[in-house]
Design brief:
The chain is mainly α and 205 residues long. 82% of the residues lie in helices and 0% in strands.
Length: 205
Amino acid sequence: MDVINELIMQAVASPWLYLVLFGVTILDGFFPPVPSETVLVAAAAVAASTGGADLLLLGAVAALGAAIGDNIAFLIGRKVGTTRFAWMRRPRVVTVFASAQRALENRSAVLILGARYVPVGRVAVNMSAGALGFPWRRFLPLSLIGGLSWSAFSLAIGLLAGSWVKGQPLLSAGLGIAIALLVGLVIDRVAAARRRRVAAPQLAG
């Protein structure tokens, strides 16, 4: 256990951590399987527990990477639409895109900012925004605000976990990831419930 803790502390203290985090948060903006929340929360938890990284720099790097990733998703939507690839035509993905397209017409700012917290949802919303011709000059500041708020929220989760488990980077990282997964599950459930409420009147009509 001591050896693992030492390796984690060295990894968090390494300057490569910021480069890895930057790359992961960019990829996560248009490729949801990449776990950017996990990396950021775990790094913040370990840093809070051991003091091994600059939390402000972690947050800034993650926020910038998230905004870049979201804008890449927007540009993908602008270039290829939302139906070109086979995975886009899966029933669940089609439902997410359709819901995002309807909502963008009425509450674009709330949707874009809120979707940043839902891994699949943010890709669907941002690609839909691009595909539907949503103005990039409006999307860019929203993506920056969304990336900053998401980064601050993830850091807060990591700090909370790290403050509970001092001097144990492995445990603090594990606790931070568990909290992040739980929060993500709750957000996913709430988003799914909202989609069902929106769809119900349309089906009845």
